[in-house]
Amino acid sequence: MDQNIDMDAVAARRRALAEALQKGEPVVVTASGEVEKKEEADDQGMSGIMVPNGKLA
Amino acid sequence: MAYYWYQSDPQLYQMEVAAMQKFFPSFTISQLQDGSGRLYWRGKVQPAGQGGMVWDLMLIYKNSHPHAGQNEYGGSVQILPLSPRLKDIADKMMPLIMQTYGDYDNVVQHGFGLGLPHIYRDQFGRNEEYFICSADPKYFKTGQNHSTSAASALSWACKWIILCEMWLNGEISDDVAMEGNY
What we know:
The complex is a heterodimer.
Chain A: H1 7-23, E1 27-29, E2 35-37, H2 38-43, E3 49-50
Antiparallel strand pairs in A: 1-2, 1-3
Chain B: H1 5-8, H2 10-23, E1 28-31, E2 39-45, E3 55-61, E4 77-83, H3 86-101, H4 104-109, E5 119-124, E6 127-132, H5 150-168, H6 174-179
Antiparallel strand pairs in B: 1-2, 2-3, 3-4, 5-6
């Protein structure tokens, strides 16, 4: 594992994603499987599949 | 005689392959060597990005694809994590869950009967394995003109994984993990 990873940044990113998911904001999944808020992915020019609507079973 | 969905509907097969190659090009397709004829995709994802866990997944088509019965969680694309193995994580979590809810009946009532939120068990080869409940079957599209692909199922699974990691890290509560609006 890369020891230089900023775990605080990783946790902060996860918190933002958790909030977005709870609010039902659109998210995309990139080719590596990374889940991103759609607006952030757009800002960064990242493409990915939009997660379809659907509640986890 | 065409027996499997990918023989009887080659166009659907081509669309499935095209969608996976477009969105998840590192995944490869093969056929299970168990005589069932089922096709599966295998590859790795890292839903939390850098610093998150790497998950080695199999996406296994049921031969009924595209189909979603009332209790067919995730429809006809089953998501089986090979690493980490859900059963191993669930076994580690169960003592903590029992501590929280007191007895097994209460654990089941809160939806954690298998030790993790939103999973189901099924036979896979000789073993019973735990699979990701990627979506309520009512969201799995099975129409002739529009059906849910393995690529869409994988995107649901990545969302499940990140929520599961958050729950394992204590970043979201049991209630949110079970009943959150996603």
